[in-house]
Input
Amino acid sequence: AQTVTQSQPEMSVQEAETVTLSCTYDTSESDYYLFWYKQPPSRQMILVIRQEAYKQQNATENRFSVNFQKAAKSFSLKISDSQLGDAAMYFCAYRSLGNQFYFGTGTSLTVIP
Amino acid sequence: DVKVTQSSRYLVKRTGEKVFLECVQDMDHENMFWYRQDPGLGLRLIYFSYDVKMKEKGDIPEGYSVSREKKERFSLILESASTNQTSMYLCASSRPGQGYPGELFFGEGSRLTVL
Output
C-alpha cells in the first residue's frame, strides 16, 4: 500500500512570510494524483491544491504552490504571504488510479501576527 | 455549491449503544467514504462504497458497518459503541477519476464521544 509521510507535526510562520510544508510518499505506480487539504479549526476539510503526476509543471493556486519532485517522491506546499486565515491543519494526500486515497498525519500551521 | 452533509456535528453516546452517522451528498458522486480522524494518526479509512449497495472495507473496519441504499446517502453504524471509538468521523465523496483528479469533498465531521 502507498504511504504518505508528513514529517513536521507543527509549523509556525510570521504573518506575510513564506512557509513550506513537507510531504513524501511511497508508491510503485507511475500515474497518480497528489493533493493538499486544509482543515481550519471549524473542521471542514477543503482542497487547497492538486497535482497530476504526469504533469511536470508545478501547480499554483494564488498564494499556494507546490514543489513536485516525482523521482524523489516529494510534494511540498509553499504558502506565500501567509495570512491569519491560513492557520489550520494541512494534510497531504495521494490518490491512486484505483481511486484509493492515502493521507499523511498532518501538519498544524500556526500563523503569528 | 457542492455539498456533503453529515447529520450530527456532535454526539454523546453510552458504551453499548447503537450509533448511526448519516452522510448525504448532492453531487451525484459514485464514491463515498467514511474516515476516522485522530490526533497524530491522520485520516484512516473505515469503509468506502463505489456504488449503491456496494461496500468495501478500509483499513480499520472492525466495530463498524455501513449501509448505502441510495446513491446520495452513506451511513456509518457502530453496532455497540465502545470508548475507543470516541473520535472525529469524516464523510467524503468523489467522482471516479478516469483521467480526472477525482478529489474528495468532505463533510463537516461528526465528533462522537462514547462514555
Notes: The mean pLDDT of chain A is 93. Residues 95 and 101 of chain A are 4 Å apart (CA to CA).
